[in-house]
Write a structure and sequence with these properties.
By secondary structure, the chain is of the alpha+beta class. The relative contact order is 0.15. It holds the Pfam family Lactamase_B.
Amino acid sequence: MAAMLRYLTIPVTPFAQNCSLLWCEATRQAAVIDPGGDIDTVLAESDRLGLALGQIWLTHAHIDHAGGAGELAERLGLPIVGPHPGDQFWIDALPQQSQMFGFPPARAFTPTRWLYDGDTVSVGECTLQVRHCPGHTPGHVVFHSAQAKRAFVGDVLFAGSIGRTDFPGGDHDQLIASITQRLWPMGDDTVFIPGHGPESTFGRERRSNPFVGGT
């Protein structure tokens, strides 16, 4: 029987960013996606679930998604996986981002592994596909489990909205192309976990999202 993928979404930081604990039911091996802050809260949930937290995965390097990654990596000796190298300048600017937005001091870091379109990442016996989806940031990536019909899309797409493109490195046309060419083919029945707000499906957004509906 195929390994079962589970996840728990934990809103963190004043921006209510959706940090996700992701684990393999068979092995209890876990990764955390986008630990933007509130690290103790995330670790308490991991302990409560009896998980063996072994990796940090990043969709992109804005402060509310990556602000806690350096601290968590150092505290637990965890590898940081992702995002794509296009976000190096955002990683380098994490200390400045934390000051600008009133976050606890964030440290810059070098990811243990950069991610590229077509890569895979694994947690326990579960493997997810990596898609490079630039537009919100140049190095934004998305994690997709075809088996579980789930996609962790960061700030590319939201229920009823899309990611901002007015930050440095943002590109509206590129974002729309990422959504229509890389997310929609994952299937209308795929549930996506956005970086903020409630879950939705690609089919629902294709039909009704005012920014990309009908594409």
